[in-house]
């Protein structure tokens, strides 16, 4: 397993390098001088020339690329001109906010979706199962931007129960912070909840028909222990795959959710940077998000072995 983990870590390097090459080329292929775009139409030729020199955009493309890769390897993400601070400080300031939102949404998705999937599998072809299937399809198909706006209109504008935007402050008390967290968490949790429920139902239907589950029932074990100890444990592997993808997606920046609710995370940071034409922030945030994806996928693969010790690791992955 140690060799497998080392191999996966080494495989992360070319993946991140490819992402870096793509985002570098995209930002350099945009029409016009990025320095002129960042400064706006009112900038003078002298100001544009100074910023072009500062960003190294007057150098040949291959020199710009090697400088960019060299800075990445040293952990130097550069400085944001619009925010007037190092990009790594921006990430450290905004990323915890995204983690808070993502963890809250993930807890909702797990606590609602997984039990719903288990019950639907236990009551296959019942009214509950049909209702579950309908709501799962709606949850997967529902656009987050529409759901977020509807939540704001109903619970904030019409009922006045929760704040419409912002993160709240712990200085105002835990209640203020939680009240700001509820609506964005629900909006972000909708699609993962439906996906967790569908995957759980599908996996449980496959497992509960196995002989070892029937044997456990024949021994007189309570149905709760049969489902939780024998069936659900062996149905976890597909759920872990979906869990890893959802964590990556959420931590990668819930762009729509953070934009709708003005939640100050890395998703909103990317949108603001695009609006301000700060391509340095955009390209480094993409690299950071790619790093999150590969790290989470590695952790999910390791968790397979913890959940199911029978899994063997080979050169190409799990067997």
What is the gist of this entry?
This protein has helices at 2-29, 34-39, 45-55, 61-73, 87-122, 127-141, 144-158, 174-207, 211-218, 223-234, 236-251, 255-260, 266-275, 279-307; strands at residues 79-80, 85-86, 313-314, 317-318. It is mainly α. The protein has a two-stranded antiparallel ribbon with strand order 1-2. It has a two-stranded antiparallel sheet with strand order 3-4.
- Termini separation (Å)? 12 Å
Residue share in β-strands: under 5%
Helix content: over 70%
- The main sheet orders its strands as 1-2
Query: C-alpha Rg, in Å?
Result: 24 Å
Anisotropy-based shape: globular
Q: If helices are DSSP runs of H or I spanning 4 or more residues, what is the number of helices?
A: 14
- The H/E string reads HHHHEEHHHHHHHHHHEE
Major pleated sheet: 2 strands, antiparallel
Average pLDDT, all residues = 76
Protein traits:
319 residues; mainly alpha; two-stranded antiparallel sheet; 14 helices; 75% helix; globular
Task: Describe the 3D structure.
With 319 residues, the protein is mainly α. Helices cover 75% and strands 3% of the residues. The protein has 14 helices and four strands. It has helices spanning 2-29, 34-39, 45-55, 61-73, 87-122, 127-141, 144-158, 174-207, 211-218, 223-234, 236-251, 255-260, 266-275, 279-307; strands spanning 79-80, 85-86, 313-314, 317-318. The strands form two sheets. The chain has a two-stranded antiparallel sheet with strand order 1-2. A hairpin with a 4-residue loop joins strand 1 and strand 2. Helix 5 crosses helix 8 and helix 6 crosses helix 8 (174-207). The longest helix is centred in the N-terminal third of the chain and has 36 residues, at 87-122. The relative contact order is 0.13. The mean pLDDT is 76.
């Amino acid at each position: 397993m140690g060799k497998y983990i080392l191999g996966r870590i080494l495989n992360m390097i070319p993946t991140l390098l490819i992402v870096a090459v793509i985002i570098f080329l995209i930002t350099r292929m945009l029409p016009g001088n990025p320095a002129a775009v960042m400064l706006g139409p009112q900038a003078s030729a002298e100001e544009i020339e100074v910023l072009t020199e500062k960003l190294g955009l007057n150098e040949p493309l291959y020199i710009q690329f090697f400088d960019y890769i060299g800075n990445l390897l040293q952990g130097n993400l550069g400085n944001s001109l619009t925010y007037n601070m190092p990009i790594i400080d921006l990430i450290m300031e905004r990323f915890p906010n995204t983690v808070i939102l993502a963890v809250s949404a993930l807890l909702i998705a797990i606590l609602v979706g997984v039990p719903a999937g288990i019950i639907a599998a236990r009551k296959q072809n019942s009214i509950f199962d049909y209702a579950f299937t309908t709501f799962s399809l709606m949850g997967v198909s529902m656009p987050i931007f529409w759901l977020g706006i509807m939540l704001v209109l109903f619970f904030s504008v019409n009922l006045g129960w929760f704040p419409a935007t912002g993160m709240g402050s712990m200085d105002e008390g835990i209640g203020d912070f939680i009240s700001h967290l509820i609506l964005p968490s629900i909006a972000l949790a909708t699609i993962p909840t439906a996906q967790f429920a569908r995957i759980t139902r599908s996996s449980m239907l496959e497992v509960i028909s196995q002989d070892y589950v029937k044997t456990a029932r024949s021994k007189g074990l309570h149905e709760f222990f049969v489902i939780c100890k024998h069936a659900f444990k062996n149905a976890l592997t597909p759920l872990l795959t979906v869990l890893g993808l959802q964590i990556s997606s959420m931590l990668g920046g819930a762009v729509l959710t953070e934009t709708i609710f003005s939640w100050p995370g890395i998703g909103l940071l990317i949108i603001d940077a695009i609006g301000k034409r700060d391509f340095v922030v955009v390209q480094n945030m993409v690299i950071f998000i790619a790093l999150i994806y590969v790290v989470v996928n590695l952790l999910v693969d390791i968790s397979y072995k913890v959940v199911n010790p029978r899994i063997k690791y080979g050169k190409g992955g799990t067997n």
